[in-house]
Amino acid sequence: MSKAGHSIIKAKMRETGAILAGEMSGHIFFADRFYGFDDACYAGGRMLEILSKTDQSLSQIFAEFPQTFATSEIRINCAEEKKTWLIEKLVAEFSNTNEIVTIDGIRIKFENGWGLVRPSNTQALLILRFEANSEENLTLIRQTVESRVKALLGEKV
Question: Quick one: 69-152 is in which CATH superfamily?
């Protein structure tokens, strides 16, 4: 796990010796038989290579993985001077009831998924992402975290 961003991920790959890394945005970084950077054409070529060595279809290969449900990136306006304060408040609140990771903002683990709130590196925004094992759990986790963020920002929930 690493902070988001191309240069940060590439540095983490070098530090850990990782041969593959990815972001929820869909960027996939290869250091195995490649230069360690994100390249969609190369990712497609590697997928074709995998398919050429099996009789399974792509959908059959993916069916072996657990199904998860995720949100797209959710952006909430937040003044630069409030970003750190807000993350600290969320850490204080959620660390009492949930396991948290604070590598890049706060990642809150729930029994059936997780929620992420991190400050944007480039804009006066908070970036939220959520993932769960069902649509229902995704909705519940998102409502739990997003309502706290909005309440701390003084928005009507």
Answer: Alpha-D-phosphohexomutase, C-terminal domain (3.30.310.50)
